[in-house]
Here is the input.
Amino acid sequence: MRCLQVSNQDLEERIPSYEELEKLENEEAGDRPKWDNKAQYMLTIVGFCVGLGNVWRFPYLCQSHGGGAFMIPFLILLVLEGVPLLHLEFAIGQRLRKGSVGVWSAIHPYLTGIGIGSMCVSFLVSLYYNTIMAWVMWYFFNSFQETLPWSQCPVNANMTGLVSECERSSPVDYYWYRETLNTTPDIDNTGGLQWWMVLCHVSAWALLFICISRGIETTGKAVYITSTLPYAVLTIFLIRGLTLKEVIQGLNLKTCDLNSFLSEGVEGTGLAFIVFTEAITKMPVSPVWSVLFFIMLFCLGLSSMFGNIEGVLVPLQDLGVFPKSWPKEAIAGTTCVLCCLVGLIFVQGSGNYWLSLFDSYGGSIPLLIIAFCEMVGVVYLYGIDRFNDDIEFMIGHKPNLFWQITWRFVSPAIMFVIFVFYFITKVQETPMYKAWNPESENFPTLEEKEYPTWIFVIIFILAGIPGLSVPLTAIYKCLRNRCCKKDNDTVLGDYHSVCSSGLVIV
Here is the structure.
């Protein structure tokens, strides 16, 4: 169906032929970094796809949007949008053997913004994702105590009773909002840097740098632990839970606690650091279970960060931000230091509010725009028939009818409809956030507050710039090409004028 392909001049010159691919494969076999085996590659993919969000974000979203009913549209969109997009990204990246910027600029120079937008989203997600890793490290370090510090309220300064804020809420709430975050009552009040969280924050970035500094030579080994240990720990938790007495009653009671917490406004991060930690305190030998739980969270987060940070490093190299002479370690170190410094905003007293803001707007609208442009770019600019031939070249057969229908029609249409409705809904809403305020009348229920006016600038940066990088880059490329063409025409015109006047002597 060539009618589905828009004219795209010089495409064949920008992409390697099959013969060139085979030649490159043979020439770079010994020099190019590669996985030791298929298991490493698969574990890396699993680790990137399954992360902390599956523990602290997805259950919260599921419960707050209808519970079990939420799973019906989720599974439908997973099949009709998520999986086709994942397959398309893997296939086109493998075919062109480039990073995100290189792939889309090869398909069409005007699509370079897709790679830049993807890099921006990876950067924003990495900033706050590694902060959650710092929180996990803090809880992990404090799990090596005979009595978990969040299992009971501390005594007040006068030694006359318990701390009032803890007594009015709960030990897990108090430990999370006061001892860990030392959170402020609103986002306008920064509260300053919390030194204990700064140490954990720096440690998290340092550990990530150590793992990625040598590329897949290091991360390929690390995924054996980071991608498998979480499932082993979950299996241990499952077996332990099923072997407890009165397991059905216990399951119902935890369900009730979860509903209660969510109805009181516990956010996604609170689900992991309040609800789950509360459950751990009820277990025998609770420090052991706490250590296992936070090891699991750390492994989930670290394996996801491998993919996120690579989504920043590779495009930066493709765009020529770093000198070509710089080694991988220098590029990774510079990027990690920059991210660590910017990420200090999340370890202030108001850091939790900033993290929720980044999570709500940094990875929502931009991803819809980028995913839609990716699908349309491959199907209509690169050409779906050429893409089918590429897949046949790589795996021996063309994609079946399901992939053809989703790539050509269903997935782009779904993404467009979701974007329109999401945009309309968000524009009509008044942005709100949940604040921990001991002075609130309904304390310990989180207080609903409107974001200050200046926060709209931040929202635009988070949600607007990554998505707008696609059309803005295309406009820039178009204008540059027109200017260069005019300059070339002027030079050639002057040359012909000089020649015609007889001023050029050979």
